[in-house]
Design a protein that fits this description.
By secondary structure, this protein is an alpha/beta fold. The protein contains 13 helices and 22 strands. The strands form six sheets. A six-stranded parallel sheet has the order 3-2-4-5-6-7, sandwiched between helices. Strands 18-19-20-22-21 form a five-stranded mixed beta barrel. Strand 9 (162-164) and strand 10 form a beta hairpin. Helix 7 packs parallel to helix 8 and helix 9 packs parallel to helix 11 (300-313). The protein binds iron/sulfur cluster.
Amino acid sequence: MEERGIFRIFAYEMTTTMKDKKATFLTLGCKLNFAETSTLRDQLLAKGVTVAEKGERADICIVNTCSVTDMADQKCRQAIHRLTRENPGALTIVLGCYAQLKPEEISQFEGVDLVLGMEHKGDAVRYIERTITQKESLQPGESCHEAIAVPLREIRTFVPSCSCGDRTRYFLKVQDGCNYYCTYCTIPIARGRSRSGSVAQIVKQAEEVAEKGGKEIVLTGVNIGDFGAGTDETFFDLVKALDEVAGIERYRISSIEPNLLTDEIIAFCASSKKFMPHFHIPLQSGSDAVLRLMRRKYDTALFAPKIARIHELMPDAFIGVDVIVGTRGETDECFEEAYRFIESLDISQLHVFSYSERPGTKALEIDHKVDKATKHARSQRLLALSEEKRKAFYRRFVGEKRPVLWEQGKEGMPMQGFTDNYIRIELPLSKEQEGNAITSAQLGDFNADESALVAEVSF
Ligand code: SF4
């Protein structure tokens, strides 16, 4: 029986070291990273740190990195160099997936004081405080260049986090790491083995969101369907328990592996008033030959009936699907087969990613490579197909009334929000509406750039 990850909550009291210091935060990558940065920011604010205004020099720079593609690594390097250039002498801390994969290399970048790997990021505040003291003993302009990261097998701690994006929906981290090792993916190498909090701990966090007036929670993680791995708790247990939390009106499951989206979860979401008719399911390829090369845990014969089952129980459900184009082994025939399969699916939108060679992944052992131009052409075709499907899905609901959670307005911008089934809705500029409120809206036709439907009569 695999040991459950260690669930640790880090609490800190006010000390002199950090009081009145200004910090700036830069996050790259996924919702998980944003939730983790947001939690660290709250912990630093509790220590008396304030957030530097735009253009204001910071004393502390925090970069939470991503390493899902080569491009992501490059963007992280650029971000680190830009922040250290714009904030000379500031204490610079680098966290996240890139930090876990290349700690020594990043720690030698000019201006970097500390690189923290996955196992230590949860205790970042204590390390930041310690490094501030260390740096005080250095010459002006000198950096600590320290890296603290443990090998993959020693990553055990589940660090809870929850962030309030756009001041309307909360991203609640329920699981971290992954045991799947798909051949194209570095995430298991960067984030470690699958681990999660307990149902009771996650429910407590949801109750805290409700106390803050939050109405919508997005459950996020790396492989959230694997919640409770190595324990007697399951993702289904978590979903049922969260459904009971008073004050939260909406839950969305950010992304779930098709083989882990069980019929009982689909049926529960269909009967729940709180779990929205909205699913995000990674397919990655519509070709069984490519799915085998990816070592995915399902094939198209499992995937298609899942989509059909969702529509059977929730005919109005929005289904977003991830696809990667240009992976090694994706021949022309495989891509055409994949395209036909995806075209045949009754889904609402595609998230199309171009395959990127990642060091340390098994995909590098596959001979057949797809050139850049072909990758681009394939992703363009899928993006066009995605727009067709999204517009067709939106068009089905023109004229209908649906509940919309309105986001906080931005100056001079039309109010926006999302329906229960994830249709983006826009209010005419002349109309105002309280943010973070759910109201019924009559869905009108598309807005100018067809990115949303305009609400005709909303209250
Ligand atoms: S399920 Fe596969 S693609 Fe997703 S994080 Fe795990 S290894 Fe990566």
